[in-house]
Amino acid sequence: MKRREFIKQTSIASSLALVPSFVNAFDDILLNGLGHKRLVIIQLDGGNDGLNTIVPYRNDIYYKNRPTLSIKSSELIKATDDIGFHSSLKPLKRLFDKGFVSIINNVGYPNPNRSHFRSMDIWQTASHSNQSLTSGWIGRYLDAYGKAPYDAIEVDESLSLAMKGETLSAIATNNAQRLFRTSQEPYFKSIINHSSDAHLSEHNLGYLYKTLIATESSAKYIYEISKTFSSKQTYPNTQFAKQLKTTAEFINSGLQTKVYYTSLGGFDTHANQTNAQSRLLSQYAEGVEAFVNDLKQNGTFKDTLILTFSEFGRRVKQNAANGTDHGTANNVFVIGENLKRQGFYNNIASLEDLDKNGDLKFEVDFRTVYATLLNKWLNVDDEKILNHTFQKLNFV
Fold this sequence. Notes:
Blueprint: H1 3-9, E1 38-45, E2 54-56, H2 60-65, E3 77-78, E4 83-85, H3 90-97, E5 101-108, H4 116-125, H5 137-145, E6 152-154, E7 171-172, H6 176-183, H7 186-193, H8 198-201, H9 206-226, H10 239-253, E8 259-265, H11 273-297, E9 304-310, E10 330-335, E11 343-344, E12 364-365, H12 366-377, H13 382-386
Parallel strand pairs: 1-8, 1-9, 5-11, 5-12, 6-7, 6-8
Antiparallel strand pairs: 2-4, 3-4, 5-10, 9-10
Helix pairs in contact: 3-11, 6-9, 10-11
């Protein structure tokens, strides 16, 4: 059978984006266990405006550069005498007040790139700005320490570069039952049943057969375990909240998955930013609060850490369309029950010392955040995964 004929005939072809990429057979990847702690990653896609998220409301430069886009101090949720939360972040502020949030300011990387696609690649692969990698930082984590395909799940219909390794990649699914049913379709099963034939084993489709075998095994495991738990927590009626509810059901059912990846898009606010960002930040904060409450009620929050990032921030100066253009450094949120550094991890970005483009200068390399999560939370060798030595922060 030729590759093209195989793709045309199998009804799972349309779902191949959900299938992880494996070079080695599933049974050849039984490496060290990954522990019991979990990491949930939330990507704010499009470049969230961090300066209108965590606001320096006593800074005259902020108001001078944003005559119509700036947020009045009376409209903010005050956190300190100088800093306030966007009013849409009330649920996040409640978590902040409980000591569950650490906000790391001025996060970025040297020689920043202002392209969505390139900057997202840099964040997802943990590369230098002048370097292109084909594997993601979570994918390389799986390559080095993964014991099964389901050790990382992207709760979506497709797999991000961050989750793709060289020998083992994560699974993308937002519906465990649908993934399982697809894996049980007759033609899918017939391919698997014949994959051990000598002819097929030597065929150039062997790679796809191995992929299907690994997918069927993982799909069955995810479905059989996750169906035992149904969340009783009330979530907002948004797609983002549905992702988090599915993630909570995966976690609370007892899946041995170590990393979950979710996203909320729409943050590319070049025009009419005020309403769009308010709506999106509400979706984010309300969804995260429901998610944390769900985990707390089921005793799983203590072993879960939530990282929120965006590929870059926005310009300090607003544009003529009452929006902001692509910038550089931004804030990162880390949410957990037993943080060592709660509240504001460091000072908010300086508006007095901008780069030549009028953008914020980064102070914290995002890879130091990754190195900390890998080393101190997931208890693995961060240098092996990031291919570089980065200092560790002190939030966990």
